[in-house]
Amino acid sequence: MSLTLHPMKEIRVIVAGEHRAFVTDLLDRMKATGYTIIGNVSGKGHHGVREAHFMSSEQESLEIILTVVPEEKVEPILAGLRPLFERHSGVMFVADVAVSRQEYFGRRGAKS
């Protein structure tokens, strides 16, 4: 048995935990079918090193929010994230990915 892969886009947003609701509310409004949140992330960027502190509040830590969407949803999501990145630190990546269960990701014309 062979799996068929379908092209999609992965959007990966890294922000302070206090901005999680902004990102997830936007993804819900744009009808992303789901997302994954990875908390207490460490990293280094323009603002220096941010260490994960498991005893600190999620408001203070960095989080990665991942979603996979059809290409036509990328631009509206990017437009919705613009106000966040104009006022706060964070980063976003968009990558080409392939999925085996296209119907899970809201692709037009896919089986429901």
Could you characterize what this model shows?
This protein has 112 residues and is α+β, with helices and mostly antiparallel strands. Helix content is 21%, strand content 36%. The chain has one domain: Alpha-Beta Plaits. The chain has two helices and six strands, in the order βαββββαβ. A four-stranded antiparallel sheet has the order 2-5-1-6, covered by helices on one side. It has a two-stranded antiparallel sheet with strand order 3-4. The longest helix has 14 residues, at 74-87. The two termini are 22 Å apart.
How many helices? 2
Number of domains: 1
Helix content bin: 10-25%
The main β sheet shows up as:
4 strands, antiparallel
User: What is the number of strand segments?
Assistant: 6
Strand content: 35-45%
* CATH architecture descriptor text: 2-Layer Sandwich
Report the average pLDDT across residues: 85
How far apart the termini lie comes to 22 Å
| CATH structural class | Alpha Beta
Low-confidence stretches: none
The general outline is globular
Which class best fits the helix and strand makeup?
alpha+beta
User: In which order are the strands of the major sheet placed?
Assistant: 2-5-1-6
